[in-house]
Amino acid sequence: MPAAAAADNTGAEFEDEGVVAAYVHRTPYPPALFDRLLQLTPGRARLLDLGCGPGKLTRTLAPHFAEVLAVDPSAAMLRLARDLDAGANRHIAWTQGFAEDAPLPDQIDLITAGASIHWMDAPRLFPRLAAAIAPDGVMTILGGDGPARAPWIAAWQEVIQAWVGKLGGQWNGGAHQARLAGHQPWFDVAATEVFTAPMTQSVDDLIEAEHSRATWSRAKMGPLAPAFDADLRGVVAPYARDGQVDFEISSTLWWGRPRARPRPA
User: Fold this and answer.
1) Which of 7, 69, 158, 205 could form a disulfide with 25 if both were Cys (CB 3.0 to 4.6 A apart)?
2) What whole-number distance in Å separates Cα of residue 160 and Cα of residue 171?
3) Which pTM was predicted?
4) Residue 221 pLDDT > 70
């Protein structure tokens, strides 16, 4: 699929109002992760958040930066971001568009990308980032925004994998792996760090968070969604107390610099 077509489809996935509504139920990033991002960024003039979604990274980091550009192709996501921010950070420029095309400032001190980098076209994007980042600036990529450790995690993952097959997909298939790794030749990683935190969430919200992911959107699943929810509920309900369940969240931080040209194979 051509890059532009892939990007257009990505925007369509996240214009789904059901996906957007479910997004607020995704777990937060561990607080220590934000502390580390700020430690890595002595310069605080400009922040760029790529694929910002509802602003989970943007809104927490914005008070520490003079200028903030938050880019996302989904108008629906940006409406939610503005609603959640409620005008607290008026210096955020919420910008609808694809990261590959959005006007970028120069001398960017921190570039962030959460659960979004795999949707982007690295050959188009990374040369632009390499030209825009400040000499001592840092690019960070984050992974992990769901439950990571609990007695029920293995069974939860078995349900997820089984449903991928029921919907005609292949768990961690070659195309999926290629998309996840597409940015790697364009990114020089200085270090990889992992951050964890305890989390308590209602069973209902935990399940609803899955519907914020493109694979499990209610619009896409249609009449199969209640059975999917029931399978997940059957796994986690025995561990719940008063409708709440405890688990650990874990997020991985890769930090380094974008490349103007890909690393030789």
Assistant:
1) 205
2) 9
3) 0.91
4) yes
